[in-house]
Specification:
Keywords: Heme, Iron, Metal-binding, Signal. This is Cytochrome c domain-containing protein. InterPro entries: Cyt_c-like_dom. The protein is about 30% helix and about 15% strand. It is of the alpha+beta class and about 400 residues long. The protein folds into 3 domains: about 150 residues, no CATH class; about 120 residues, Sandwich (Immunoglobulin-like); about 100 residues, no CATH class. Strands 1, 5, 6, 7 and 10 form a 5-stranded antiparallel beta sheet that branches. Strands 2, 3, 4, 8 and 9 form a 5-stranded antiparallel beta sheet that branches. A hairpin with a 2-residue loop joins strand 3 and strand 4. Helix 2 packs across helix 6 and helix 7 runs antiparallel to helix 12. The protein binds heme C (2 copies). The site of one heme C has 20 residues, from helix 2 and helix 4.
Amino acid sequence: MKPKQQYFRAIAIGLGALAVAASAVSAGCVEAPSGLAPGPTGGGAEDGGPSDGGGLPVVSGRDLFESMQADLMSACGLCHDVAGLADTPFLAGPDRYQSFASWPGIVSTDPTHSLLLTYALTGKGHSGTNLDSPALKETLLPKVKAWLAQEAKNFSEPPPQAGPHIDPFVPIMGFNAIYLGALGPEFEGMAVTFQADVLAETTLELTNIELHPTSKTGLKIVHPLWVVHPLGKDPNPDPVDSFSNVDTIYQIGESGPLGPGTLILVNWSTDAKLSLAFELIEKYEPASPDAGDGGPTGGCKDVPSFEANARQQLMTCLNCHGGGNGQAVAAVDMTALQSDAAKACGQIRNRVNPNDPPASQLFITTNPGGNAAHPFKFGGQGGAFNTFRDNVSIWIAAEK
Ligand code: HEC
Ligand code: HEC
């Protein structure tokens, strides 16, 4: 099919989807918990159909993506598929659209802020093929821009009553790390991590939901609320408001589950986004830090095993987590790896699973065969990763 034909086909499909969306809106949707329902001006989809007058109707970016997928794969796939040379598999299959749209920084409410236009262009630091290279400038680049413009249209705001919130994002099907820095500088480096899986067309399951404060700051959270943002419709909070009873303090340097750590969202739909709001989120400082023992109470059970089996292996991570990259240190502080093994161990222990060592976050994020959005995956070398995992797992098992 010629590109032009494909483009019109995309529009035709888009209009079909629009009609479906419009009828679904007029038929009325799932009821939201009272008090959190979007106000009369909250959505914009109720009156006059799902368009905000900005030019492009709200249709899935999937069709535009599909019309450029082949070009994208031939220009970028060698390095950006799973186990590619770049360690950033934003074109991972089987659902490459899902991977691309969910990669942090690819889609944005302002297309000019997309990594594709701030990084993958000449002179911006990208070591691979750039979108403005002679072969792509007139072909792929305009398609990428059209797609980004469509995606920018497809953002909706969380219900205004929902409190401080993380803006809507497309979840990765797999491991997600959602950073809280957007809520204020005191939350820099803190994250909510979870595994997302679609169980059925309208059911999204989140498991292993954890909250990670930093090694410097603790956190208090009251009543987190997950909100689904269906394409072209009003935001739709978790109908069961599953985490309404959550009121939790995370001590400095000690991660923990968020609520029960699991959530089933029965109001999911294809190509929807998620957002996360909090009734209250604030940094937590113990009443008098120098009264008691001070410092984190957590820590490792078997520091000698950490020293014998993990320390040397983790040296690979020090380029970034040892001080070279502020975001990496804030996320997982390994600065004491060489000077104070017990302290480093206590931080790294937040990212392991002693009951099932290979399922530890340390490995999920760095596995070259996985799709997690982490910038280092052993340069695609499965053998080096296996050596890392096998050795570090000996220590992790000792933490049980
Ligand atoms: C020859 C390998 C190669 C090719 C081909 C390639 N890239 Fe990359 N890309 C990299 C590497 C390596 C990185 C990691 C940082 C760096 O070295 O720039 C990267 C990083 C990126 C990032 C930043 C990702 C992040 O999360 O930080 C973007 C965006 C990107 N590439 C876009 C593209 C696009 C779009 C194409 C195709 C037009 C492409 N790349 C083709 C090697 C490649
Ligand atoms: C090229 C730099 C770099 C290297 C090398 C690196 N990391 Fe990271 N890592 C980061 C950054 C940056 C973040 C925080 C991501 C953010 O803020 O979005 C991070 C975050 C993490 C997280 C938190 C979860 C997540 O995905 O955000 C884990 C776990 C992690 N790294 C493990 C490791 C391990 C284990 C190694 C060594 C085998 C390693 N990292 C090597 C840059 C790096």
